[in-house]
Each structure stands twice: as structure tokens, then as C-alpha cells.
Amino acid sequence: DVQLQASGGGLVQAGGSLRLSCVTSGFLFDHYAIAWFRQAPGKEREGVLCISSANSSTYFADSVKGRFTISSDNAKRTVYLQMNSLKPEDTAVYYCAASGPSGCFIKKFNYWGQGTLVTVSS
Fold first, then answer.
1. What SS3 class is residue 55?
2. Structure confidence at residue 5 (pLDDT)
3. Is the separation of the CB atoms in 30 and 7 below 8 Å?
4. How many CB atoms are located within 10 Å of the residue 39 CB?
5. How does DSSP classify residue 103?
6. Distances (CA, A) of 47 to 7, 28, 101
7. For the chain, which terminus, N or C, has the lower number of CB atoms within 10 Å?
8. How high is the pLDDT of residue 1?
9. Are 84 and 64 a contacting pair, CB within 8 Å?
10. pLDDT tens per residue, range 41-99
């Protein structure tokens, strides 16, 4: 069974940091692309960052460049989203999603986790 479990969300003040984790199972991790998406209250879901099976990263949102970083630990089958210099507008439910190896380019993802809430106070 394909599973993705996002965790690490919480309440943080503006300027602070959080690291989200996406633990995966049920597929060939080394051959998949994994991305982070987010959905703020009353807004549509947007892509944040993607990491390919070749371990290259792609920014889906210009607003997080220089602040967010995606990384992968193949042994743990886990992808991380390091979020620094957080802003109130980063408040959202963050989801991780998986696709085939071209997912970061195609921006189409087949498997989704349930999300974790990040709240940034001013």
C-alpha cells in the first residue's frame, strides 16, 4: 500500500523555523519524485517545492525561494521541508505528494498524504 505521512507542523512566530517530514512506504522511493504542496485558508492549493529521483530540487513557488529547502533521506524513505524565515502568509496545511520520476516537470502527482498544519503568528 502506498502511504505518505506528513508531520512536523505547529505554531511558530514570524521569522522562526520548522522542519516538516514526509515518511513514505509502499513504492520504489528511489524512482519517484516527491513534492510539498500547501493550502492556506480560503485559498487554492499551490505547489511549494519538488525533489526528483535524481535528487534535484525544483521551486514551484517564488515566494519561498531563499527560505525553504527540500531534501531526501533514501535510507529512511523520508523527504523533508526545511522552512526558515517563516512569514504569516506561509500559514497553511502542508501536504506531501509522490509521482513517477518526471513529476517535478509534469507537476502531476498520484499519491497524497493527509497534511500537517503550519501556523505562523505575527
1. coil
2. 97
3. no
4. 14
5. H
6. 17, 23, 17
7. N
8. 86
9. no
10. 999 999 999 999 888 999 999 999 999 999 999 999 999 999 999 999 999 999 999 99
Query: By the 8 A CB rule, do 81 and 36 touch?
Result: yes
Q: Kindly tell me the burial class for residue 7, based on how many C-beta atoms sit within 10 Å of its own C-beta (0-12, 13-18, 19 or more).
A: middle
Q: What sign does the dihedral 100-101-104-107 (CA atoms) show? A: negative
C-alpha cell at 110: 498520484
Q: Which cell goes with 103?
A: 513529476
Smallest Cα–Cα separation from 91: which of 4, 6, 5, 16?
Answer: 16
CA distance 122 to 109: 33
Q: In three state form, how does the secondary structure of 61-74 look?
A: CHHHCCCEEEEEEC
Q: What is the pLDDT of residue 30?
A: 82
